C-alpha cells in the first residue's frame, strides 16, 4: 500500500477512536481543532443539530491583524483566546475538547491552554 494512503488510514482510525467518545450538545459543544502546516482552525460544533456555533482561524482577517504566522504556537494561543471569546459571547462556558487525530502537544496543547485561560472549561 502507498505510504500516504496508509498514513491517511491511520489518521482516520485515530480520529474515529477519539470522536467515538465525544458528542457536542448545545450546552456542551465539541471544540474541534484542525491544523495544517501554515494555519490552525478551531470550531464549536453542536452535533445534535449539526451546526457550527462559533469558529476561529489563523486565516481570518482578525487574526491577520496580529501579524502572527499561522503555523506556530503563538498563533495557536491567539486562536484559543479568540474561540473562547466567541464562546463567551454565545453564552458557552463548557466544551468537549476534540483533538482529532493530533497528539496533545505543541500547537494543539497551546490552543487548549489558551481556551482554558480564556474561560472555557473542558
Fold and architecture overview:
The protein is α+β, with helices and mostly antiparallel strands. It has a single domain, classed as 2-Layer Sandwich (Nucleotidyltransferase, domain 5). The protein is built from four helices and four strands, in the order αβββααβα. Strand 1 and strand 2 form a beta hairpin. Helix 3 packs parallel to helix 4. It starts with a helix and ends in a 5-residue tail after the last helix. The model has no long low-confidence stretch (mean pLDDT 91).
Write the layout of secondary structure elements.
Layout (H helix, E strand, L loop, with lengths): L2 H17 L10 E6 L4 E7 L4 E7 L3 H4 L8 H17 L6 E3 L8 H11 L5
Parallel strand pairs: 1-4
Antiparallel strand pairs: 1-2, 2-3
Helix pairs in contact: 3-4
Spatial strand arrangement across the major sheet:
3-2-1-4
The level 1 CATH classification is: Alpha Beta
Helix/strand structural class: alpha+beta
- Helix tally equals 4
Which segments are poorly predicted (pLDDT under 50) over 5 or more consecutive residues? none
What fraction, in percent, of the residue positions are helical? 40-55%
Oligomer: single chain
Write down how many β-strands occur, each being a DSSP E stretch of 2 or more residues: 4
Distance between the termini: 39 Å
- Main sheet: strands, sense, barrel: 4 strands, mixed
Indicate how many domains the architecture comprises.
1
Strand content: 15-25%
Amino acid at each position: 500500500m502507498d505510504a500516504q494512503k496508509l498514513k491517511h488510514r491511520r489518521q482516520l482510525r485515530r480520529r474515529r477512536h477519539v470522536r467515538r467518545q465525544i458528542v457536542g450538545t448545545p450546552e456542551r459543544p465539541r471544540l474541534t481543532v484542525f491544523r495544517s502546516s501554515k494555519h490552525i482552525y478551531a470550531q464549536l460544533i453542536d452535533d445534535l443539530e449539526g451546526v457550527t456555533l462559533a469558529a476561529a482561524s489563523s486565516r481570518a482577517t482578525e487574526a491577520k491583524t496580529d501579524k502572527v504566522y499561522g503555523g506556530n504556537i503563538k498563533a495557536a494561543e491567539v486562536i484559543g483566546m479568540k474561540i473562547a471569546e466567541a464562546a463567551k459571547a454565545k453564552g458557552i462556558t463548557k466544551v468537549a475538547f476534540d483533538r482529532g487525530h493530533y497528539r496533545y502537544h505543541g500547537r494543539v496543547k497551546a490552543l487548549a491552554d489558551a481556551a482554558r485561560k480564556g474561560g472555557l472549561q473542558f
